[in-house]
Amino acid sequence: MTGAPAGARPRAGEDGFEIPGRGRGLLDVLQRRYLLRLLVRKELRVRYQGSALGLLWSYVKPAVQFCVFFFALGVFLKVGQDVENFAVYLFAGIVVINYFSETFGNATRAVVGNAPLVKKIYLPRELFPVASAWVAAVHFLPQFVVLLIGTLIAGWRPTLGQLAGGALGFAIIVVLAVGLGLLFGAINVLYRDFENIVDLLLLVVTWTSPVLYTWVHVRDAIRRAELPDWLLTVYQLNPVTSAVELFHYGFWYGATTKPYELPPNLLWNGLLSLGIAVAVLVLGQFTFRRLEGRFAQEL
Q1: Which pLDDT tens digit goes with each residue over 52-78?
Q2: TM spans, by residue (predicted)?
Q3: 3-class secondary-structure state, position 37
Q4: How many CA atoms lie within 13 A of 191 on its CB side?
């Protein structure tokens, strides 16, 4: 080696090789985009192998979900009777929650589900949760197209600020879902109970986010119960809540003909929620890197 004293032992990395099992986390995923594409293709191929509908399930499942919620809540319980274009409002929330649920749930199972690869070769383990986010994005895209068509039919005329709000909402949900996927995916290798815990969390998130109702219902319920007003602030600082509200602002509010009361400090809460999501991503990456050395042994 040039530059090294005779007989000196080269330090790690000086010989041009990397120490196996050590990497730079998510930065390695950016450098190995080809592997990421292969994993995404593999996940899609395995998921729809032998399926007659294939990617059409990206339309069928949210359509059934939408119909159940719309008729159960909007028609029978009349939850959306005061909400103009309630169908657009409902579907805008559904596509966000579906992306979050699919990314978080599949990322939690990603390392365990790819156990043969983890045990046989070294590659950045973060590729598996990130691939789950990309697979979810493939399913999100057709749902988003349907949402755009519906909101255009409803008379959608967005402002630049509303479009920025929708983009911010999606950024929050992506960062949060990947961060939680890294965190729970790493712990799930050691304790498989976390798969069931995540399923319960996703059920809670669906019903506690303003997808099936508006934030006004939450405010009025807090006031009727004479609870402190700061509970509403805590509710709105939930990153999932902020993401859903921003998506409503971006893709529903511009299709309304009468003014609606927006959540207070919507943009500010969105930025704070993005900060919380980034903190979760950092925590998830830290936990993942601390535990990944045990993955092959535990699997």
Answers
A1: 666 777 778 888 888 888 888 877 878
A2: 56-76, 83-101, 133-156, 168-191, 197-218, 230-254, 266-288
A3: helix
A4: 8
